[in-house]
Amino acid sequence: MVNVEQIHTQTWGSRGSDSEALYNPRMFVWDAARQMLVLPMILQKEAGGEHCNIEYDANGKEVNRRCEPSYRYTTTFAGMKAIEIDVVGGIDEKYSYDYTELLKKDKQVYYDARQGEIYPWQFQNLQFRVGYLGDVLFAVSNLFAHFAVMGTNNEAYLEFDAYDIGAGGGEPMPIDDVPVLEDSATAPEAEPVINQ
Predict the structure, then answer these.
(1) Domain boundaries, position 121
(2) Any domain includes 26
(3) 0.85 exceeded by the pTM?
(4) Beta-carbon-side half-sphere exposure of residue 125 (alpha carbons within 13 Å)
(5) How far is Cα 8 from Cα 99, in angstroms, rounded to an integer?
(6) Looking at the predicted structure, is the pLDDT value of residue 57 above 50?
(7) How far apart are CA 91 and CA 78, in angstroms?
(8) Which of 44, 85, 163, 168 sits between 20 and 30 A of 194, alpha carbons compared?
């Protein structure tokens, strides 16, 4: 008989936070040699409130009030995290790349209407995928691709333009128009968190 017990816990975000990896095992990548988990996540900050339906009589006097709690969220992170998981050392965030500004740009109307919230389904609809190849972490969506060499500040970032399927009517990008990857100076606000 095997006795299993939880020995470490880590919480990111609050109510409304999500990762597609919670219900789709293809959405995270485990690197056994590094004991590192790479996954996408969207983190929300919750603000509570109340939504009330009020009924008035013909004279304008309140006759009935039904109130329910309402929740509003502000997106604080939408991107990729690489997390080291060690039985002895615990859970340690090694790298974190936030793409909230890029996602806001693509979904600005929704973002403004929801007062700072990016819905998890919007994030998922971007076909956002993360992983690693050797020492390179990557995040790829239908808006951009981002590559970062672990343990360095070497990054490459590529934003897809009007040729992509959604915006360009399904026309493939001509090979001569493929942008050249640029260095980390052009990458979005996405600095690695390196714990020594």
Answers:
(1) 20-42+78-186
(2) yes
(3) no
(4) 9
(5) 28
(6) yes
(7) 20
(8) 44
Cα separation, 39 vs 33, in Å, equals: 17
Look up residue 35 and give its two tokens: 């004991």
Q: Please report the beta strands in the chain, taking only residues with DSSP state E, as ranges in sequence order.
A: 29-31, 36-56, 62-86, 90-98, 129-133, 136-140, 144-149, 155-159
Residue 159 lies in a domain: yes
Q: How far apart are CA 86 and CA 36, in angstroms?
A: 9
Band of pLDDT at residue 72, cut at 50, 70 and 90: confident
Nearest to 47 by CA among 19, 27, 76, 67: 76
Q: Could you tell me which residues come within 8 angstroms of residue 76 by beta carbon, excluding any fewer than 6 positions away?
A: 13, 43, 44, 45, 100
Identify the bridge partners of residue 130 per DSSP, sorted by sequence position: 139
Q: Give me the half-sphere count of Cα atoms (radius 13 Å) on the Cβ side of residue 108.
A: 4
The structure tokens 């293809």 sit at 26
Determine, yes or no, domain membership for 56: no
Residue at 72 is within a domain: no
Write down the residue that tokens 């333009």 correspond to: 161
Query: What's the structural domain count of the chain?
Result: 1
